[in-house]
Design goal:
Blueprint (H helix, E strand, L loop, with lengths): L11 E9 L2 E6 L3 E6 L13 E7 L2 E7 H4 L12 E7 L2 E7 L1 E9 L3 E2 L7 H6 E7 L2 E6 L8 H5 L1
Parallel strand pairs: 2-11, 5-7
Antiparallel strand pairs: 1-2, 1-8, 3-6, 4-5, 6-7, 9-10, 10-11
Length: 155
Amino acid sequence: MSDDQVTGTGDRRELISFRVGQQEYCVDIMAVREIRGWSPATSLPQSPSYMRGVINLRGAVLPIMDLAARIGMPLAEPTVRHVIIVVKAGDRMMGLLVDAVSDILSITEDLVQATPDVACDKVRSFVRGIISLEGRMISEIALERLLPEREALAA
């Protein structure tokens, strides 16, 4: 995407956009560690329904979250076309199961609009803002809000 395709002022930042169902979402590219193909996860007992389980990522145990289920959509039925986006949220690493990676976006902050008040509380809690770009509506995910608090997991 060339600079003249994106209007706006201020500092640019890059986002990776991806699809979950028919919707497009994005996360800050600085949080993305890698993008890998789907591989089955080992389930963990008593974990939330949106957690697919864990995979071995070069000797480290990586939790895999079904992003569709986390944001209130039906559980995904992973195929070879699905991908795992490995992200770092704060001090925690996780994999996000998504349908496909779409694009790398270069935006300025003035392109990000507030999440509408009509959105349900769950959506507003995970979506930092909405970007209207080239006829697309892309929701920016707040990664730090996706994982449950550690105390809730221990309960």
